[in-house]
Amino acid sequence: MNLRTIDLNLLPVLEAIYAERSLTRASESLHITQPAVSNALARLRVHFEDPLFVREGRGVKPTAMADALMPAVRDALDRLRAGLEQRSTFEPSRSTRVFNISARDAGAFILAPEMARRLEAEAPGIRIAWSQVQRGHISTELASGRLDLAIDVADLRGRDLESVELLATPYACVMSRDHPSAEKVLTMEDFVALRHVVVSSRREGRSYVEEIARAAGHRITPVMRLPHHMPALEIVRRTHLVATVPLPLAERSDLAVLPLPPVFPHLRSVLYWRRENAEDPALAWLRDLVQQLAEAG
Fold first, then answer.
1. Which contacts of 55-60 are long-range, i.e. CB under 8 A and separated by 24 or more positions?
2. 26 neighbors 62 (Cβ within 8 angstroms)
3. I want to staple 158 with a disulfide (CB 3.0 to 4.6 A). Which of 30, 139, 207, 248 is the partner?
4. How far apart are CA 17 and CA 11, in angstroms?
């Protein structure tokens, strides 16, 4: 990147298009017009002698050149912002910043409603975009700036990641109230003999309930596998299948809720962020808010 010949004002535009995958959304996040974004992109294309972004559906996707540029661009801009923001105070009540958080649907279920209430009262201009990024992509998404925070299991790796344990969530078995086992105390043998719907964000590999059962010397063969809890709960409501779900979600359903056999531990969730962003006052405020909400349950 030849800094002597490039207008550095173009770099935030490059970053915004990369993060938003849309010129329209990039213009909104930068608070400039779409023609201004298009003009900046045209100048960037000339400078780098590469299209940088090509059309994909209703948005754009980065070229290999854009992917190669972004770590350095993001790092330079983050350092500049950190240096500037350390001299100022982040004011949530006046901010219009957009934050991107990745979480499984159980984590979002526990945290997002109370977060929405807090933001409505204390920071109405702030917007939160929740998503569920594939586990193997979280480190890259944090590094690129497309994610600000991620909430996931405790074994993510990345030399640029910082983390803190956030939640230890108990799970329970749910079934319809007319299920033959609805009044039982489940032994491990009873539990694995039931017909299961399992929830896993991965297309392959064992789910939480399958992994724990296997470690205890048992096997569960699911009747159905789903990526989200809400359709699993609806299936359980209409059939004699059962599901293992986070206790806060189970308690808000109209299903029979049975304790799991003692072999099942609470599922630990960890909050991750990029080390370079540790001093960003806005992200420090967001991390603190998420931790407060987790502690409040």
1. 56/21, 58/22, 59/20, 59/21, 59/22, 59/25, 60/17, 60/21, 60/22, 60/23
2. no
3. 139
4. 10
**Is pTM beyond 0.85 here?**
no
Tokens 């009044």 identify what position? 183
Residue 163, SS3?
Answer: strand
Check residue 289 and give its pLDDT.
96
3-state secondary structure of 179: coil
Alpha carbon distance 240, 175 (integer Å): 7
Asked whether the predicted pLDDT for residue 2 surpasses 60, the reply is: no
Q: What is the largest CA-CA distance in the chain?
A: 75
For helices 105-122 and 281-296, the axis angle rounded to 10 degrees is 110
Q: Tell me the mean pLDDT in the region 258-267.
A: 93
The helix-helix angle for 23-30 and 34-48 (nearest 10°) equals 110
Beta bridge partners of 164: 271
Contact in structure between 264 and 212 (CB atoms under 8 Å)? yes
- As given in the structure block, the two tokens for residue 202 are 């991965």
